[in-house]
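Please review this pair:
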Amino acid sequence: MADKDTTVKTKKSTASESGKGKNRVRFKKFVLILTVAVTIGLYGCSGPENYNADLNSAGVESGTEMQTPNDESGDLYSEDEKADETDKKSDAQGKKTDTADEKQDIADENSSGAGESASSAYTCTVSIKCDTLLEHMEEISSGVREIIPEDGIILSETEAEFDEGDSVFDVLSSVTRENKIHMEFVNTPAYGTAYIKGIANIYEFDGGDVSGWMYSVNGQFPNVGCSSYEVKSGDKIEWIYSCDLGRDIGKDI
């Protein structure tokens, strides 16, 4: 009988201990859930403060609006920054345009200067004739007679440009070259000038022993060689073939 009572008491005691253990587990779970809830609540309340504190520690002023990417374009710049960038590009384009305009102005000035230089070149007139030979055809060899123009004019009066300081010889050389007229000369160091031997294949002595080429300027026969006479603007230069040392063309001897 005593053993039965002892067994019953032991079972009751075991059941009681088991119940207490379950209650402890439930209590621990409750405390754990409560702790988590409180922690979440506290984090939620203090989160923004901590966030601002983190920003302050990073050197970002509290309350400053952070730039975020635009959902549509992905542009990280604000509207003001975009406007500034556009202005910079416009200024750069304007500078390029100004530079191009300046270069064009310089080119125009150079072109204008070249045009003015060309238009202000000195000019004179030049003519070449051998009509005096027409009066001595019987004395001239057949080969020369064939190349003498019918009117004796090798080059009619022609305007020619020259540079300041050019001589009669310089102008003759330029004119005959431009008009594809043969011209032959020799330099005479003793006289410091060039001597014209032939023009258009008509040479000295072709018209006689005292024949040859002479020049006049404005109707006058200078007493210097053609390399020594400096041409002036407006001069009228004539190259004339003489068969008598110039007497037959108006030169005073």
Summary: Residues 2-57 form the longest helix (56 residues).
